[in-house]
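Lab notes, practical 5.
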Amino acid sequence: MKATRIISSLVAACILISGVYAASNSSAGIDEKDLGIRKTEVYSEDNTVPDGTNYHSEARGTSKKIQRAYVNAPPMIPHDISDLDEIDKNNNACLGCHMPDVAITMGATPIPKTHFTNFRPAVETDVEDNFKSESNDKIIKKDLHGVLWQALYNCTQCHAPQTQGKLQVESNFKPDYANNKGQKHQNRSYLMDEIGIGVKVGNGL
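Output from the prediction step:
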Protein backbone atom coordinates (compact mmCIF):
# COMPACT_ATOMS: atom_id res chain seq x y z
CA MET A 1 0.00 0.00 0.00
CA LYS A 2 2.83 2.32 0.91
CA ALA A 3 4.66 1.49 -2.32
CA THR A 4 1.49 2.30 -4.34
CA ARG A 5 1.26 5.73 -2.73
CA ILE A 6 4.91 6.42 -3.51
CA ILE A 7 4.47 5.36 -7.15
CA SER A 8 1.32 7.50 -7.45
CA SER A 9 3.16 10.51 -6.03
CA LEU A 10 6.06 9.99 -8.47
CA VAL A 11 3.67 9.71 -11.43
CA ALA A 12 1.87 12.91 -10.39
CA ALA A 13 5.20 14.73 -10.01
CA CYS A 14 6.31 13.56 -13.49
CA ILE A 15 3.04 14.76 -15.02
CA LEU A 16 3.39 18.15 -13.32
CA ILE A 17 7.00 18.57 -14.45
CA SER A 18 6.07 17.52 -18.00
CA GLY A 19 3.27 20.11 -18.07
CA VAL A 20 5.53 22.93 -16.90
CA TYR A 21 8.18 21.93 -19.45
CA ALA A 22 5.64 21.82 -22.27
CA ALA A 23 4.25 25.20 -21.28
CA SER A 24 7.72 26.75 -21.21
CA ASN A 25 8.53 25.33 -24.63
CA SER A 26 5.24 26.62 -25.98
CA SER A 27 5.92 30.15 -24.69
CA ALA A 28 9.39 30.11 -26.17
CA GLY A 29 7.86 29.47 -29.59
CA ILE A 30 5.85 32.75 -29.68
CA ASP A 31 7.57 35.59 -31.50
CA GLU A 32 7.59 38.90 -29.61
CA LYS A 33 6.04 40.76 -32.53
CA ASP A 34 2.94 38.55 -32.19
CA LEU A 35 2.31 39.58 -28.59
CA GLY A 36 0.80 43.00 -29.30
CA ILE A 37 -1.44 44.70 -31.84
CA ARG A 38 1.49 46.10 -33.82
CA LYS A 39 3.04 43.19 -35.72
CA THR A 40 6.55 44.60 -36.15
CA GLU A 41 9.90 44.51 -34.38
CA VAL A 42 9.54 46.00 -30.90
CA TYR A 43 13.17 47.06 -30.48
CA SER A 44 13.49 49.15 -33.63
CA GLU A 45 11.34 51.59 -35.58
CA ASP A 46 13.35 51.18 -38.80
CA ASN A 47 10.85 48.89 -40.49
CA THR A 48 7.69 50.19 -38.81
CA VAL A 49 5.47 52.03 -41.27
CA PRO A 50 2.06 53.33 -40.10
CA ASP A 51 -1.01 52.99 -42.26
CA GLY A 52 -1.40 55.94 -44.59
CA THR A 53 -3.92 58.63 -43.70
CA ASN A 54 -6.83 58.54 -46.13
CA TYR A 55 -8.96 61.65 -45.79
CA HIS A 56 -12.25 62.07 -47.61
CA SER A 57 -11.60 62.88 -51.24
CA GLU A 58 -15.16 63.84 -52.20
CA ALA A 59 -15.45 67.20 -53.88
CA ARG A 60 -17.14 70.02 -52.03
CA GLY A 61 -20.87 69.95 -52.60
CA THR A 62 -20.98 66.19 -53.30
CA SER A 63 -20.20 64.78 -49.86
CA LYS A 64 -22.57 63.60 -47.13
CA LYS A 65 -22.59 65.04 -43.62
CA ILE A 66 -20.89 63.01 -40.91
CA GLN A 67 -23.06 62.45 -37.86
CA ARG A 68 -21.82 64.43 -34.88
CA ALA A 69 -20.22 62.48 -32.06
CA TYR A 70 -22.24 64.29 -29.38
CA VAL A 71 -24.67 67.17 -28.93
CA ASN A 72 -23.29 70.41 -30.40
CA ALA A 73 -19.99 68.73 -31.33
CA PRO A 74 -18.00 70.64 -33.99
CA PRO A 75 -19.00 68.80 -37.18
CA MET A 76 -16.35 66.89 -39.09
CA ILE A 77 -15.37 68.11 -42.58
CA PRO A 78 -16.79 65.55 -45.04
CA HIS A 79 -15.02 66.80 -48.17
CA ASP A 80 -11.52 67.32 -49.55
CA ILE A 81 -9.68 70.42 -48.29
CA SER A 82 -6.21 69.64 -49.64
CA ASP A 83 -6.46 72.31 -52.34
CA LEU A 84 -7.46 75.10 -49.95
CA ASP A 85 -4.91 77.66 -48.83
CA GLU A 86 -3.79 77.88 -45.23
CA ILE A 87 -6.30 79.71 -43.06
CA ASP A 88 -5.39 82.99 -41.44
CA LYS A 89 -7.46 85.89 -40.14
CA ASN A 90 -7.34 87.66 -43.52
CA ASN A 91 -7.74 84.64 -45.79
CA ASN A 92 -10.29 81.91 -45.15
CA ALA A 93 -11.60 79.95 -48.12
CA CYS A 94 -14.19 78.20 -45.93
CA LEU A 95 -16.22 81.40 -45.74
CA GLY A 96 -16.86 81.32 -49.49
CA CYS A 97 -19.37 78.48 -49.02
CA HIS A 98 -20.26 78.45 -45.33
CA MET A 99 -21.27 82.05 -44.64
CA PRO A 100 -25.01 81.95 -43.82
CA ASP A 101 -26.03 84.15 -46.75
CA VAL A 102 -24.51 81.79 -49.34
CA ALA A 103 -24.54 78.41 -47.57
CA ILE A 104 -28.09 77.49 -48.57
CA THR A 105 -27.47 78.07 -52.28
CA MET A 106 -24.14 76.20 -52.04
CA GLY A 107 -25.68 73.25 -50.20
CA ALA A 108 -23.22 73.82 -47.34
CA THR A 109 -23.62 73.87 -43.58
CA PRO A 110 -24.04 77.51 -42.52
CA ILE A 111 -21.75 78.93 -39.84
CA PRO A 112 -23.86 79.16 -36.65
CA LYS A 113 -24.69 82.37 -34.83
CA THR A 114 -22.22 81.51 -32.06
CA HIS A 115 -19.40 82.32 -34.49
CA PHE A 116 -20.77 85.82 -35.00
CA THR A 117 -21.05 86.53 -31.29
CA ASN A 118 -18.31 87.78 -29.00
CA PHE A 119 -18.43 85.78 -25.77
CA ARG A 120 -16.41 87.03 -22.85
CA PRO A 121 -16.72 87.14 -19.06
CA ALA A 122 -18.29 90.23 -17.51
CA VAL A 123 -15.39 92.53 -16.70
CA GLU A 124 -15.23 95.24 -14.05
CA THR A 125 -13.05 98.30 -14.67
CA ASP A 126 -12.18 101.41 -12.71
CA VAL A 127 -13.07 105.02 -13.61
CA GLU A 128 -10.09 105.15 -15.99
CA ASP A 129 -11.24 101.96 -17.73
CA ASN A 130 -8.43 99.87 -16.25
CA PHE A 131 -9.14 96.19 -15.64
CA LYS A 132 -10.13 95.29 -12.09
CA SER A 133 -11.75 91.85 -12.19
CA GLU A 134 -13.86 89.48 -14.24
CA SER A 135 -16.84 87.34 -13.39
CA ASN A 136 -16.67 83.55 -13.25
CA ASP A 137 -20.40 83.03 -13.67
CA LYS A 138 -21.61 85.73 -16.03
CA ILE A 139 -20.93 85.90 -19.75
CA ILE A 140 -21.48 88.98 -21.89
CA LYS A 141 -22.73 88.16 -25.38
CA LYS A 142 -22.12 90.81 -28.00
CA ASP A 143 -23.77 90.35 -31.39
CA LEU A 144 -21.24 91.18 -34.13
CA HIS A 145 -23.98 91.45 -36.78
CA GLY A 146 -22.58 89.01 -39.31
CA VAL A 147 -18.88 89.67 -38.68
CA LEU A 148 -16.95 86.52 -37.81
CA TRP A 149 -15.61 86.58 -34.25
CA GLN A 150 -11.84 86.56 -34.59
CA ALA A 151 -11.45 84.09 -31.72
CA LEU A 152 -13.03 81.52 -34.08
CA TYR A 153 -11.49 82.44 -37.42
CA ASN A 154 -9.38 79.26 -37.57
CA CYS A 155 -11.94 76.67 -38.70
CA THR A 156 -9.63 73.64 -38.57
CA GLN A 157 -8.82 74.34 -34.94
CA CYS A 158 -12.11 72.60 -34.09
CA HIS A 159 -13.31 71.13 -37.39
CA ALA A 160 -11.20 68.44 -39.03
CA PRO A 161 -11.50 66.10 -42.01
CA GLN A 162 -12.22 62.50 -41.06
CA THR A 163 -9.66 59.89 -42.02
CA GLN A 164 -10.70 56.52 -43.36
CA GLY A 165 -7.56 54.78 -42.10
CA LYS A 166 -7.53 51.12 -41.10
CA LEU A 167 -7.97 50.88 -37.34
CA GLN A 168 -6.35 48.08 -35.35
CA VAL A 169 -9.24 48.36 -32.90
CA GLU A 170 -12.50 49.50 -34.45
CA SER A 171 -14.63 51.95 -32.49
CA ASN A 172 -18.16 50.94 -31.59
CA PHE A 173 -19.00 54.36 -30.15
CA LYS A 174 -22.52 55.58 -30.76
CA PRO A 175 -23.76 59.01 -29.74
CA ASP A 176 -26.25 59.20 -26.90
CA TYR A 177 -28.63 62.11 -26.41
CA ALA A 178 -30.04 63.32 -23.12
CA ASN A 179 -33.32 64.41 -24.65
CA ASN A 180 -35.37 64.55 -27.84
CA LYS A 181 -33.96 67.98 -28.67
CA GLY A 182 -30.46 66.53 -28.90
CA GLN A 183 -31.67 63.67 -31.07
CA LYS A 184 -33.51 66.06 -33.38
CA HIS A 185 -30.44 68.30 -33.72
CA GLN A 186 -27.84 65.56 -34.12
CA ASN A 187 -26.65 67.21 -37.33
CA ARG A 188 -27.43 70.79 -36.33
CA SER A 189 -26.13 73.10 -33.64
CA TYR A 190 -28.26 74.68 -30.94
CA LEU A 191 -25.27 75.76 -28.90
CA MET A 192 -26.48 79.37 -28.89
CA ASP A 193 -29.42 78.27 -26.70
CA GLU A 194 -27.17 76.57 -24.15
CA ILE A 195 -23.85 78.42 -24.39
CA GLY A 196 -23.87 79.24 -20.67
CA ILE A 197 -24.67 75.75 -19.41
CA GLY A 198 -21.05 74.94 -18.58
CA VAL A 199 -20.70 78.13 -16.58
CA LYS A 200 -23.89 77.39 -14.65
CA VAL A 201 -22.92 73.80 -13.87
CA GLY A 202 -19.35 74.73 -12.93
CA ASN A 203 -20.57 77.33 -10.46
CA GLY A 204 -23.43 75.30 -9.06
CA LEU A 205 -26.06 77.62 -10.50
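Observations recorded by the TA: The chain has a mean pLDDT of 76. The longest strand covers residues 131-143.
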